[in-house]
């Protein structure tokens, strides 16, 4: 019988006690093998097991010691019980002044949880197909801010570097992160290849070889994006960056969930130069917004380590805890299953949208380079006989939104927008002259078959209404957010 419970014999029969302690010991065995294997458990952990694990670690933090008299200015004191419970009694956060990965002496438990989160994430990346990853750090800021931290780290290494060569992607954060790092973007417009928009590798090459070559900070490519934009040609760009000695950062915001994107990143690691890859925790790991994962290929850990080392101060551990809890609750099997389901649903979504479109004289844009997002033309709505217009196209977007379809996005050509001093013609389509209006939908992790079915039902209902009496819909469609 283990430790203190030995004293209980005589109070409760020994055989009952040993049965009980065996059950508790089997939980502890899981903890032990987690810490020795340093990867995802094969099987999902039960909620109680996860909770016990966190509680045990929480007891190692000084704010939870029974006999602790804090006389410092940071003692992890929490007034509200709701707040304390929300954090499982963990209140020291992570890091010490000036290094987010440094172990905090007052918080052995929190410090350990931070390491656990990062090795779980590293293994989750491996299961998803992103191989040869070296250093991984999960930071408590979202993707855009994490990209800014990465660009700042690059600037410290290359003080002359000022320009970021940036294949256009119409997502404001992707550009704002460059200016937040006090750098400037050199915008590279996409090439068209059939329906899809692809990286103009030659244009990137001429920028990194041109007169401003010395002042190029890096090339910033993006993998996950709305169709008809395809993922950037990360393999070719990484080879180019290797050849030219230019840094290469990848915005892989929600790319972890795609085996195809993971495979091309692995290939970019092996064939060329990648300095850092940044991905969102909420978009890939089904947790609330709050974190991002910064990683680099094995043997080239410089930038993510620099991000950790220069983080000014301590940070919240909550985003890391959320990820750790989620990954332990999934285990490698549960995580792999989720990824497989997503791949299947992407096929299903594409097929369903395709058949919907073809019945209405539209079609799904051919975008084989985008494994997550689907785009269906809305050309008939624009040029239709019953007074179709871009207004009408946008109207469809707001109708869907009002019917609780979130995430469907409608693009109608013609709007330009100024962002960070750049004028983008046809903003929203990633291209100054994309010839179609279209509707986007994405098969993202956690989506269900039912989500797809309900989306198509409501889309069909909206379509009918649009084609029929226009007047009855008056007043509807206001108040929806634009893309
Ligand atoms: C979501 C997203 C971002 C912004 O991410 P935040 O997590 O909100 O900072 C940037 N780039 C791409 C491609 C995205 O999808």
Strand content: 5-15%
CATH topology of the largest domain: Aspartate Aminotransferase, domain 2
| Total strands | 14
CATH architecture of the largest domain: 3-Layer(aba) Sandwich
Oligomer: single chain
Summed up, the domain count is: 3
Name of the CATH superfamily of the largest domain: Type I PLP-dependent aspartate aminotransferase-like (Major domain)
Strand order of the largest sheet: 1-9-8-7-6-2-3
Number of helices: 15
Secondary structure: helix percent: 40-55%
Average predicted local confidence, pLDDT: 92
Computed over alpha carbons, the radius of gyration is 26 Å
Which terms summarize this structure?
globular, alpha/beta, Aspartate Aminotransferase, domain 1, binds pyridoxal-5'-phosphate, Aspartate Aminotransferase, domain 2, 483 residues, 44% helix, 3 domains, three-stranded antiparallel beta sheet
What can you see in these coordinates?
There is one protein chain. By secondary structure, the protein is α/β, with parallel strands linked by helices. The chain has three domains: 1-34; 108-330, Type I PLP-dependent aspartate aminotransferase-like (Major domain) (Aspartate Aminotransferase, domain 2), CATH 3.40.640.10; 335-465, Aspartate Aminotransferase, domain 1 (Alpha-Beta Complex), CATH 3.90.1150.10. It has helices at residues 14-37, 47-58, 81-86, 108-128, 143-157, 172-180, 201-209, 234-244, 259-271, 281-285, 302-310, 318-358, 379-383, 390-402, 449-467, and strands spanning 133-139, 163-167, 184-188, 191-193, 196-198, 216-222, 248-251, 276-280, 292-297, 373-377, 409-411, 417-419, 422-424, 438-442. The strands form four sheets. It has a seven-stranded mixed beta sheet, sandwiched between helices. It has a three-stranded antiparallel beta sheet with strand order 10-14-11. Strand 12 (417-419) and strand 13 (422-424) form a beta hairpin. Helix 5 (143-157) packs parallel to helix 6. It is globular and about 85 Å long. It starts with 13 loop residues before the first helix and ends in a 16-residue tail after the last helix. Pyridoxal-5'-phosphate binds at residues 142-144, 171, 173-174, 222, 224-225, 251, 253-254, 280.
């Amino acid at each position: 019988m283990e430790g203190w419970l030995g004293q209980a014999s005589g109070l409760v029969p020994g055989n009952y006690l040993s049965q009980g302690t065996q059950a508790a010991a089997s939980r502890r065995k899981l903890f032990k093998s987690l810490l020795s294997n340093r990867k995802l458990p094969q099987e999902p952990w039960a909620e109680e097991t996860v909770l016990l694990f966190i509680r045990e670690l929480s007891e190692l933090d000084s704010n939870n010691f029974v006999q602790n008299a804090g006389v410092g200015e940071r003692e992890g004191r929490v007034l509200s019980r709701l707040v304390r419970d929300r954090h499982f009694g963990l209140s020291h956060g992570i890091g010490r002044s000036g290094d987010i990965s440094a172990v905090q002496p007052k918080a052995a438990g929190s410090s350990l949880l931070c390491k656990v989160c990062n090795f779980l994430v590293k293994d989750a990346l491996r299961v998803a197909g992103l191989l040869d990853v070296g250093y991984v750090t999960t930071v408590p800021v979202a993707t855009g801010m994490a990209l800014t931290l990465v660009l700042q780290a690059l600037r410290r290494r290359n003080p002359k570097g000022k320009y970021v060569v940036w294949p256009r992607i119409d997502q404001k954060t992707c550009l704002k992160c460059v200016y937040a790092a006090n750098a400037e973007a050199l915008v590279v417009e996409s090439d068209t290849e059939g329906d899809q928009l692809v990286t103009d590798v030659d244009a990137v090459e001429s920028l990194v070889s041109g007169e401003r070559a010395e002042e190029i900070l890096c090339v910033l490519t993006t993998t996950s994006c709305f169709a008809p934009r395809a993922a950037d040609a990360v393999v070719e760009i990484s080879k180019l960056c290797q050849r030219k000695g230019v840094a290469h950062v990848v915005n892989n915001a929600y790319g972890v969930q795609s085996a195809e994107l993971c495979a091309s990143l692995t290939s970019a690691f092996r064939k060329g130069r990648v300095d850092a890859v940044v991905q969102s925790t909420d978009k890939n790991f089904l947790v609330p917004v709050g974190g991002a994962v910064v990683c680099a290929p094995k043997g080239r850990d410089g930038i993510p380590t620099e991000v950790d080392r220069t983080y000014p101060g301590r940070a919240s551990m909550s985003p890391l805890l959320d990820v750790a809890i989620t990954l332990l609750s999934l285990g490698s099997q549960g995580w792999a299953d989720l990824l497989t389901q997503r791949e299947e649903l992407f096929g299903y979504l594409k097929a369903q949208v395709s058949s919907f479109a073809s019945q209405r004289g539209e079609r799904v844009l051919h975008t084989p380079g985008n494994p997550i997002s689907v785009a269906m033309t809305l050309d008939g709505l624009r040029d239709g006989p019953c007074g179709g217009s871009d207004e009408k196209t946008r109207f469809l977007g707001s109708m869907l939104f009002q019917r609780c379809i979130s995430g469907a996005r409608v693009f109608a050509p013609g709007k330009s927008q100024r962002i960070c001093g750049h004028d983008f013609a046809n903003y929203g389509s990633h291209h100054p002259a994309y010839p179609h209006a279209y509707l986007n939908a994405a098969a993202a992790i956690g989506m269900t078959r039912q989500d797809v079915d309900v989306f198509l039902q409501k889309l069909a209902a909206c379509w009918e209404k649009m084609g029929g009496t226009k007047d009855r819909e008056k007043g509807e469609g206001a108040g929806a957010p634009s893309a």
